Amino acid sequence: MRILFLGPPGAGKGTQCKNLSEKLKVPHLSSGDLLRDAVKNGTEVGRLAKSYMDKGELVPDPVLIDMFRERLNSKECANGFILDGFPRNLAQAQALDKMLEEIKQPLIVVLNLQVPDHLLMARITGRRTCPDKQCNAVYHINFKPSPDGKNCECGAELVQRSDDKEELVKERLRIYNEQTAPLIDYYDKKLLLRTIDGDGEEQAIFADILHTLTPPAVPDSV
Ligand code: AMP
Questions:
Q1: pLDDT tens across 179-222, in order?
Q2: Best of 34, 39, 58 to mutate for ligand 1, by most ligand atoms within 8 A of CB?
Q3: pTM greater than 0.70 (yes/no)
Q4: What CATH architecture does domain 2-26+79-124+179-213 belong to?
Q5: Distance (Å, rounded) from C-alpha 166 to C-alpha 171?
Q6: Residue 211: phi, psi to the nearest 5?
């Protein structure tokens, strides 16, 4: 399965990609997680990325394109992948098309997780994440609290992402609407788009995603 997730920050892409990655046994490639790892590891890419991420702005396209080219060409992705957060604008989408064409692994489906604007701010500012690289679990102080309200089930202390503060969220949503939302139309024109209602309970949304990915049964008479 080669799947791309679209949706604004706070739509629940990370959570659903993680669910789907476990179910389908294909890697979840999150641009945000890859960049945050680079920042944590103090690499050159990480230092450059941080200066943009701290302002809620997009990191320059070549950084993301190189990062994903390397991943998509690796053995890890030989049996499929789930892309989350990349591409984020038209230039990245065109670069992705080209690299997938080169490796003859076109996207099978693009899932657009739709959530009304007025819900996004509360969802993002209440989000708490597990800093453990292997775990990366995501909670919410109201909608999905951790068992003790402080620590992840894996034991690590939960943190609020520095770009999940209100001022930065406003900028991230503005950039999403300006640069990323046009990709909905881009993939719709390629007949790849399926829209999922992302306003609801996590497991119900996941069931919807699985249903969308299931090919329709062929009637006996055919
Ligand atoms: P996310 O975790 O997807 O919300 O991403 C966090 C931040 O990483 C974004 O606000 C951007 O600064 C940066 N970022 C993630 N993906 C991309 C991308 N495809 N292109 C440029 N910047 C990105």
A1: 999 999 999 999 999 999 999 999 999 999 999 998 876 776 65
A2: 58
A3: yes
A4: 3-Layer(aba) Sandwich (3.40)
A5: 9
A6: -65, -45
